[in-house]
Write a structure and sequence with these properties.
This protein is mainly alpha-helical and 404 residues long. It has helices at 3-7, 10-26, 36-39, 46-52, 71-88, 94-118, 123-130, 133-138, 145-159, 163-174, 183-192, 200-228, 230-233, 235-242, 250-256, 264-290, 298-308, 317-327, 332-355, 364-387, 392-395. Helix 2 (10-26) runs antiparallel to helix 6, helix 4 (46-52) crosses helix 6 and helix 6 (94-118) packs parallel to helix 9. 47% of the residues are buried.
Length: 404
């Protein structure tokens, strides 16, 4: 690494990135006119949620207000609403709520960086996170940083051999957003086929303990709400099942091109089958190289999940980016992925603007081009994860944390 990079603290870079992220979403305020939220990309879920999900009134999620997010995210939204009303009083607006949401996500981004430093992730990768383009795009977009933080923590605990804690963290992450659940089968396989893990029944017992920890952690958070307000609690799952898809998903691109028009049940079926088949192949092939560190397979499995899912919202790239930073053998394909994320982000939002007659406008073909560019980088990264060894920082001895 160059001398100047050694003298710069990644935390200062992350601070600048977070400020840019806040400016990117906050410059529109909370009163959108002329499709400015799409033209400039400043759309944020925080703005409609302030009024439409009872946040401004302090309604309790699930019990008093609808909430299409899993429970931990719902409670985070409620807590941020409480902070907003406490800080800004009766004059609190959606713009104030957006500021609090971005500030909390910035705190979570710093927590992720702190975990990377403690794990002695090399400084180049720390800078890749600190200057992450997805943080600029999504810091104030919604609440996915909570699940991202749980997922990163789970991966880093797994690297240290703490599978029980990693399992609990992944289960809690799936109570914030569903994608960390993909870590749980990997952890179960790690316990079941561990070298030096004893006899068959001992390894089966270890895997069973992990399953109990996962179910218990997830259930502890979800059961009280599910019992009291099942319809509102289950909205996330019913809503996800009923959605037709988003413009940048492969299924919608195929439909728009007239190559394969599928109803929702067909998309649900085929997206599930294609994902499961591909994920099994990734784990099977990746096990040959990464058996000692199977958590390295989470990133390619997650990438495949995003590629095959019927819904590919722009902010989903924030799920994958830190995992690629941690596990990719080379970082230049990660930069390729980040460029594809930016292109897909603006293509999709300018498509919304075009529907309303505003310019710049994008077409479904523009979305397909951007999504294809991004998908090519993801397929490259999946292939690289199966063919290349673990990155150097993973193989380094687990010594004292990086406090430089």
């Amino acid at each position: 690494m160059n001398g100047w990079a050694k003298r710069i603290d990644p935390r200062w870079v992350l601070a600048i990135t977070c400020l840019l992220g806040w400016a990117f979403k906050g410059h529109c305020g909370a009163y959108w006119l002329g499709d400015i939220q799409y033209l400039t990309g400043c759309y944020s879920d925080a703005v409609p949620f302030w009024g439409l999900r009872g946040v401004s009134a302090g309604q309790i999620p699930y019990l008093e207000a609808r909430m299409e997010y899993p429970v931990l995210t719902g409670w985070l939204i409620w807590a941020e609403g409480l902070v907003t009303r406490t800080l800004f009083g009766s004059g609190a607006t959606a713009a104030h709520f957006l500021f609090v949401v971005a500030a909390v996500n910035a705190g979570l981004a710093f927590l992720v960086l702190a975990m990377m430093r403690r794990a002695r992730v090399d400084r180049t990768r720390q800078f890749a996170w600190a200057g992450a383009p997805p943080l600029v795009l999504y810091l104030g977009h919604n609440w996915d940083m909570l699940a991202v933080t749980f997922a990163v923590a789970a991966v880093l605990f797994a690297r240290r051999g703490g599978l029980r804690i990693a399992t609990a963290l992944a289960a809690l992450g799936s109570a914030a957003k569903l994608f960390p659940v993909l870590l749980l089968p990997v952890f179960g396989l790690a316990a079941l086929f561990a070298r030096g893990g004893g006899g068959v029944w001992r390894r089966v017992g270890a895997a069973t303990v992990l399953a109990a920890i996962a179910i218990g952690s997830w259930g502890l958070v979800n059961a009280p709400i599910a019992v009291q307000a099942f319809a509102n609690w289950s909205e996330f799952y019913t809503f996800s099942s009923a959605r037709s898809g988003t413009a940048a998903s492969v299924w919608e691109i195929l439909a728009q091109a007239g190559w394969w028009v599928t109803p929702v049940p067909t998309r649900n079926l085929w997206s599930g089958l294609v994902f499961l088949g591909g994920a099994a192949m990734i784990v099977g092939l990746g096990w040959i190289r990464h058996r000692a560190r199977p958590w390295l397979l989470f990133a390619p499995v997650l990438a495949w999940f995003l590629l095959t899912n019927k819904v590919y919202s722009p902010q989903f790239d924030l799920w994958l980016y830190p995992m690629l930073v941690l596990t990719s053998y080379r970082l230049w394909p990660v930069a390729w992925f980040a460029l594809g994320d930016i292109a897909a982000y603006f293509a999709e939002f300018w498509w919304f603007a075009g529907i309303d007659g505003y310019h710049p406008a994008a077409s479904s073909s523009d979305i397909a081009v951007a999504a294809t560019f991004r998908a090519a980088s993801m397929l490259w990264l999946i292939g690289s994860s199966l063919l290349r060894p673990a990155p150097a920082w993973v193989l380094c001895p687990r010594t004292a944390p990086d406090t430089a």
